[in-house]
Amino acid sequence: MLRLASSWVWDFWTADDGDRYHLFFLKASRALVDPDRRHWRATIGHATSTDLSSWTEHADAVLPDDSPAFDDLATWTGSVVHQDDGMWRMFYTAVSRAEGGLSQRISSVVSADLFTWHREPGRQVLVPDPQWYETAETRQWPDQAWRDPWVFRDGETWHMLITARANHGDADDRGVIGHATSPDLTAWTVQPPLSRPGAGFGHIEVVQTVNVDGRPVGLFSCLGPELSRARRGDDPVGGIWAFPTDTLAGPFRTEESYRVTDEHLYVGRLVEDRAGRWQFLAFRNDDGHGGWVGEITDPQPVAWIDGRLTILEGSALARS
């Protein structure tokens, strides 16, 4: 488990250098007192582990840039990939002071060792294409959804899956999985979404697709208040969701999503351990008494049961 005495931690992603797992996570000082204030004070922390359970914290990986800049307010959720040249590239979400955090953008930093990260001059800043997606100007949601990049390679093409909203449909039901592609990780082209609006989600946060025991699956998160009225029905509980898919790069049938955990956990990630077993991690969100926790769980094994990805019975998360 990762619990910091001085900071809350929440959204996270991992990288594996072959010897250690690297955990990157959003963090903000507990001195803020009110955890709802954390989003505008977020930096990207860093810790390492050999077993996904015991973590050693290191210096923060990424901080907001000096003003004025598109990322001078806060740096949010992303992912890390290993380039063919041996460098590591972290994609992340950025918000600016000038816009009061309203507009979300995606950019990247690079590192030779996963510890020290550098902003590149002339790096691309990815924004939503209005022919498919809501923008800050056309939104029917509190903010522009364009965040949480999940990047992976399929053949010769790099894919980026993005938390986004379509530019049509009911206001509470426009959540889609946005998409961009690149041949080289530096020049990106925004593509149409890989899922359809009307699946029951106002937004589809922190998407991940992986092959678990040879079977592709997607994960994302959505809380109860962000579900559409139709999906809430008599079961207005959100949490971490899984969806079936035939390929890691879509298209995705998010209307067939099912809940993996309720809202006591959020932002589920699947990580393969050294024994080749898939483990589930998440951050502790709701303490069951109206309080917010802000720590990352120990890994818990998963398996396919009756065609659904399931946290195995007997684990601490399955019992929660």
Automatic annotation (TrEMBL):
Matches recorded under CDD domains: GH32-like
GO molecular function list: hydrolase activity
Glycosyl hydrolase family 32 N-terminal domain sequence ranges: 19-217
Keyword annotations: Glycosidase, Hydrolase
Name of the featured protein: beta-fructofuranosidase
TM regions (residue ranges): none
Family stated for the protein in its record: Belongs to the glycosyl hydrolase 32 family.
EC number: 3.2.1.26
Lineage: Bacteria, Bacillati, Actinomycetota, Actinomycetes, Micrococcales
